């Protein structure tokens, strides 16, 4: 019995619909895998950029690579567990499992030192070898005497790229500072002096606030706690509110001792402070390049000095040149005058005889 054509068309539509839904399901399943891979990529980039993981540079198969030790990676994950939060579902994995995943995704490669024998006069192998080779036996994580190199290129943010172009321009501008106009020199000078004064004032007020609260209340309160930190970001660097003090309070004996020391130092500075007359004498006696820049004026330039010179007298210059000629030139001039007088007398005598 033949089936109607309409039923066959319905079956074809259903089959095509099921195929499209399967494609959609497969497409919907693909992004999580890609997202999981990207999470480990982000984790690797975050760990590599973190300064808590000690690393070095070495040559491996004619290429420079950045590598670290297995035991340092274990201690880093132990001391910074917040780095694992980026892995989301896989954040509960052990350190060894995370490292093996990175090795499986070719984000890491296990290396070994090229020179495995001791050099003459050495008692142990180098802690950070300068030459490495790929470990051929097993690409698995190991904590004992194992090295691991990053295989991906380190991404540089946009501000670092712009800063790399800005540094040469800044260096050239610093070198050309002596030829700046006078007004530009003053602007640069006062700007740098103002920034330096602001930094020193901030550090001084910060230290005074910490010392006062530590002596009076026994609490360690640092305003701008990350102002001197090397690993802080720009946002964390200017954070004003301090962290919570979780350390034990200081003893009253130490607080009393440092109070006496602070009072003695203040009294000594006040007693030996120079008066206004001594400061004025010192300022008149000493001069430096900053005073030269501040007191310089375009009127004192070479052109201005030449215009302010008095007119030169020609006769005085001639007399000075004849005086500076010396005795030898004077004797020669006298001889020429006597010879001329004798010749004139001889001519007169010959005229009389004729």
Automatic annotation (TrEMBL):
Location relative to the cell: Endoplasmic reticulum membrane
Comp. bias (Polar residues): 15-25, 312-323
Gene Ontology cellular-component annotations: endoplasmic reticulum membrane
Major location category of this protein: endoplasmic reticulum
GO biological process: pollen development; post-translational protein targeting to membrane, translocation
Cross-referenced Pfam families: Sec62
Swiss-Prot/TrEMBL keywords: Endoplasmic reticulum, Membrane, Protein transport, Translocation, Transmembrane, Transmembrane helix, Transport
Membrane-spanning intervals of the chain: 158-180, 187-216, 252-269
UniProt-listed InterPro entries: Sec62
Chain intervals for the UniProt region annotation (Disordered): 1-36, 312-354
Membrane-related topology note: Multi-pass membrane protein
Compositional bias annotation for Acidic residues: 333-345
PANTHER family: TRANSLOCATION PROTEIN SEC62
Family assignment from sequence similarity: Belongs to the SEC62 family.
Designated name of the protein: Translocation protein SEC62
């Amino acid at each position: 019995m033949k089936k109607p054509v309409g039923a066959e068309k319905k079956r074809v539509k259903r089959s095509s619909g099921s195929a499209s839904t399967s494609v959609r399901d497969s497409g919907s399943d693909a992004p999580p895998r890609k997202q999981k891979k990207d999470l480990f990529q982000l984790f690797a980039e975050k760990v590599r950029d973190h300064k808590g993981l000690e690393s070095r540079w070495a040559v491996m198969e004619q290429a420079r690579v950045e590598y670290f030790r297995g035991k340092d990676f274990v201690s880093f994950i132990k001391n910074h567990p917040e780095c694992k939060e980026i892995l989301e579902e896989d954040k509960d994995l052990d350190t060894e499992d995370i490292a093996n995943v990175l090795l499986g995704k070719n984000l890491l490669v296990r290396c070994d030192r090229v020179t495995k024998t001791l050099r003459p006069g050495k008692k142990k192998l180098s802690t950070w070898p300068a030459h490495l080779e790929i470990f051929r036996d097993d690409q698995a994580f190991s904590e004992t005497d194992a090295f691991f190199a990053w295989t991906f290129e380190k991404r540089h943010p946009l501000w670092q790229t712009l800063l790399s172009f800005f540094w040469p321009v800044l260096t050239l501008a610093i070198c050309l500072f002596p030829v700046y106009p006078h007004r530009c020199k003053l602007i640069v000078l006062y700007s740098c002096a103002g920034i330096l004064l602001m930094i020193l004032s901030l550090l001084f007020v910060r230290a005074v606030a910490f010392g006062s609260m530590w002596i009076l209340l026994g609490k360690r309160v640092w305003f701008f706690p990350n102002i001197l930190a090397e690993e802080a970001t720009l946002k964390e660097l200017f954070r004003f509110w301090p962290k919570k003090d979780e350390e034990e309070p200081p003893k009253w004996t130490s607080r009393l001792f440092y109070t006496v020391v602070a009072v003695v130092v203040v009294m000594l500075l006040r007693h030996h402070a120079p008066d206004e007359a001594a400061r004025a004498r010192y300022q008149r006696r000493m001069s430096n390049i900053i005073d030269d820049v501040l007191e310089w004026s375009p009127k004192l330039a070479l052109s201005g000095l030449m215009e302010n010179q008095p007119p030169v007298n020609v006769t005085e210059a001639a007399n000075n040149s004849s005086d500076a000629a010396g005795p030898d030139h004077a004797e020669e001039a006298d001889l020429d005058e006597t010879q001329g007088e004798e010749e004139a007398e001889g001519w007169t005598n010959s005229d009389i005889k004729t």
